[in-house]
Amino acid sequence: MARYALVVGIEEYDNQHLKALSKSVTDATDFAKLLENYGDCPKNQIILLKGRVTEDKLTEALRNFLNEQAKNQEAIIYFSGHGVLEKEHKKIIDEISMQGYLAASDCQLTKQGEQLIVQRNAIPLQNITKLINKTELSSLIFILDACHSGSLIQEICNSFNILTNNTSYYFMAACQAYEESWAKKSKTHSEFTGALLEALSQDKADEDGMITAGQAFDRASKQLETGRQKPIFMGKGSRLSLVTYPVTSLFRENCSKSPQITDNELAVLKPYLEKIDKHVLTWAVMSAISADALNQWLALDEFLSIESFLTIVREQFPKKTDGSLSLIAVLQILSCHPKISLELQTEFKMWLQTRNYGIPDGYSIHIKGKLNAYLLVVVKQERPREPLHLTAYVKIENKTPIPIFIKPKPPFLYQSHPENGAIITCQLSEDETLEEKIVPYLQDLLKQSGDIYLRGSPSTYNLVLEIFLPFDYLAESVDLWGIERIRRKRKLGREYRVIVRSYERLVDAYYAGKLESAWKLMKSMEQKVLPTCIRRLEQEKRYFYSILEQELTEQQSIGLSCFLPEAEAEREELFVALYETGVPLALWLRSPDLENDGMLHFEQLLCTRCLQDHNQLIEQLFKKRQAAHFCRNPENQWGYHAAMLLDNPERTPSLNPLKFGQ
Predict the structure, then answer these.
(1) Residue 660, domain member (yes or no)
(2) Cβ atoms within 10 A of the Cβ of 466, count?
(3) DSSP strand E in 168-226: where?
(4) 364: in domain
(5) Residue pLDDT, tens place only, 102-140
(6) Cβ-contact 645, 578 below 8 angstroms
(7) Within a domain: 661
(8) Taken in order 494, 497, 501, 507, is the CA torsion positive or negative?
(9) How, if at all, do strands 210-212 and 241-244 pair?
(10) Which of 57-66, 382-391, 405-414 has the lowest mean pLDDT?
(11) CA distance linking residue 354 with residue 618, whole number of Å
(12) DSSP character string of 310-369
């Protein structure tokens, strides 16, 4: 007997009372994939409707599927989308009748008080029940993940034909008729579908590799029993299998329960590890063990082979600080990483479970929204004409900065320090610019930090490039440095969120103390007061920078905006004033002669929202720079000339690698 499936995930809705559903497409896609892989349902026998699905398209699909494609065969229907419950008070008998609907993308509703009234383009569950009554099926599994989906069960119970014919049925509803079906932003799937997929994972299969619809529902409903929705079901006839896994899977062979991992077990594991994207594996090593383990792996093998990975987790970092096995911790990350196929996730879970190791929450590593990632590049030069010493770190959210190790490659424009592999050195001659010496290092650094340290993240990320410069180079136009991107030279500020930071305030205790005090003052201020504490020099035609330090101190300023002085002596006065007062924020324009309104742009960046959330400030500056570079004449645009120093004392790299030879 062949099996056919109709899988629907509606995300887009036209009506204002029906919000877009961010989980429905993922729910439907992953359920269809599960059926294709283990549900005895080939891809050409699965109809997948997702995104925008109109009432006409949905109705036609249901009719054709039940009356033609699945006729006399096994059928599975899955729906994820909006459900609507319409209530009517029948006064003559003093009863409230309820009618449930599946809302299509073009569904039209009105609202009377708190009640939704269906106008058109929604399918009554009562009509779906009537359609099922008229079909000739071998069996039917109907799964409904929508608000008020329990109405379907009520309609089925009222249908005498369905309960008395010879067809085996199993109906699942995500919630009661009067309840809503929920989804959390932090999770990949809706609450019910997520629990159902977890209940259908291979580690839940019986000795024959089978999971029935009833078993899956029981486990899913138990997982949700303390939540805001209570799934319900109704079934009749024989047991209906939803998925069947191969019992010959390598991970289901006889396995040792020993806490030690044998060579034979590694031989079983290795082919599965080789299927993992290396970027995901590096993320798992960094997250599960430590950044030191990842850097040691890079130092051992720049190609990051599985053989060298096993050397790291078995010999150099066999156990974590808590005594647990490093390899197990990595596998636990991989078993629920969203960038790994469900099939591989299941294999890793089986491997862990058969050895009595814990199975993590399937969505525990998902990160809400985007990661805030920072690339901290420190440029050190003790005295003029001495070599530059460069170090770099990746900082993710609030975690400890991770030092980045780069092996110099031909033509060897920079080299590793002989006493510390984390330090890069290069000589700056009199006829060379800082850009010429640092850009080759930045080029390699940006690629390696993105590929090795961040690409395997379970979430997308915004990368902020923070360059710590010595006092003499603070006015450097870092954002206008040219880097190679896909065989084209681009400005650094066009491609990345770039800000300047001061090196001395990182290492000098006196200036670091000044900065810390000013930062605390800024954080203690009321939000509405913040914009008034910015000293705006760009509004003055002629300014004597020799008095800037005194003004910043008297006014308790937390920021400064200005046109960058042309005279070198005035620039020095400007940056000395920032250092001595500890002011953490300075925004300057390199050219006062622009066609557009520079004042307006300053005010947009120095608003309450940006001053309260500096990530917003960095993002807005980045957008203005991009807008300028996308113009035909970027040199005439405000964003092309804008630069910013933003010293956050709460986000600094470790100083230990800088203390070589001391």
Answers:
(1) no
(2) 23
(3) 168-173, 210-212
(4) no
(5) 999 999 999 887 788 899 999 999 899 989 988 889 999
(6) yes
(7) no
(8) negative
(9) antiparallel
(10) 405-414
(11) 48
(12) HHIIIIIS-B-TTS-BHHHHHHHHHTT-TTS-HHHHHHHHHHHHTTTPPPPPTTTT--SS
Q: Which of 662, 657, 636 is nearest to 292 (CA)?
A: 657
CA-nearest of 183, 103, 114 to 149 is 103
Question: 165 and 59, same structural domain?
Answer: yes
Quick one: 157 and 266 in the same domain? no
Rama region for 121: left / alpha / beta (φ>0; ψ in -120 to 50; rest):
left
Ranking 31-35, 254-258, 285-289, 439-443 by mean pLDDT, the lowest is: 254-258
Residues 148 and 129 in one domain: yes
Residues 6+ apart with CB under 8 A from 240: 139, 141, 168, 170, 212, 213, 214
Report CA dihedral (489, 490, 496, 497) to the nearest 10 degrees: 140
Please give the DSSP secondary-structure letter assigned to residue 190. B
Q: How far apart are CA 506 and CA 515, in angstroms?
A: 9
CA distance 110 to 95: 23
Pairing mode of beta strands 420-426, 415-417: antiparallel
Give the bridge partners for 424, in sequence order: 390, 416
Q: What is the pLDDT of residues 434-467, one digit of tens each?
A: 999 899 999 888 887 777 888 888 888 889 999 9
- On the question of pLDDT at 378 being above 70, the answer is yes
Q: Are residues 224 and 308 in the same domain?
A: no
Do residues 340 and 465 both lie within one domain? Answer: no
Q: Are residues 143 and 217 in the same domain?
A: yes
pLDDT, averaged across the chain: 86
pLDDT of the residue at 250: 42
Per the structure, the count of domains in the chain is: 4
Q: What is the token pair recorded at 86? A: 């319409």
**Residue among 637, 403, 638, 424 at smallest CA distance from 538:** 638
Give the residues across from 321 on adjacent strands: none
Range of the domain at 271: 250-353
Which residues lie below 8 Å from residue 263, measured CB to CB, with a gap of 6+? none
Between the alpha carbon of residue 159 and those of residues 128, 133, 154, 391, 527, the distances in Å are 11, 8, 9, 73, 62
Task: Give residue-wise pLDDT tens across range 623-633.
Answer: 999 999 999 88
Report, as an integer, the average pLDDT of 364-371: 52
Residue 121: C-alpha distances to residues 68, 101, 106, 365 (Å): 23, 10, 6, 39
Tokens of 392: 């770099």
Query: Which tokens hold the place of 175?
Result: 């919630």
Bond before 360 cis per omega within 30 degrees: no
> Hunting for tokens 């990160």 — which residue is that?
367
Same domain, 587 and 611: yes
For residue 167, is it within any domain?
yes
> What is the distance between the alpha carbons of residues 454 and 459, in angstroms, rounded to a whole number?
9
Q: Which helix (H) or strand (E) holds 297?
A: helix 291-300
